[in-house]
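Reply to dn_fold:

You asked what the input looked like. This is it:
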Amino acid sequence: MMIKVPKYLFHYYEKSNGAFTSLSSLTLIEAEEVLKNIRQKNESFASKRADNYVGVRFELESKIRQCFILKGGEPKTKFPHYMTLGSCDWLKEWYKEGDSVQIPLSILNPKSISFTYGDSFPAMRVQDGKPYRGQVYTFEELPGLIEKYGLPQNWNFDGKFAPERYIEAQVWDDEVLNIIL
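and this is what came back:
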């Protein structure tokens, strides 16, 4: 059976902020201040994030980057641009006015994209014995990953079975910005 890998990556964002704005592009102090302001407005999913979210995020990004390099990845940036493999429109609910962009996977450099099975936070932090926990995948590994576990958007679209709701793509190259901006 031929496994179909979705052909598009999707990025979800708050429409008023624009696509690809990221706490990771800021210093720790700046990012914590932005998150503090988001919490005060209490209008989005981000307002409910834990107090240590930014520090943990920076650590996870570093870990994912190092794992990706060990697998032959060639990141061009220090932090990734977050996307999903295939659509997952429930992510629009994270925002007051959610929006998305889609980019054909075929026009991006596969050596600059890593993947986690599910959002990187639970994928890298939850310890429940699932074999994809703590793992970073390359583009070449996607067919096998999807064949073995399926697309979370299909088997867990409503989040009833696990925290996995999509395969997260970490794009380690600013070329993605030039495509849509």
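The two ends are 38 Å apart (CA to CA).
Hope that clears it up.
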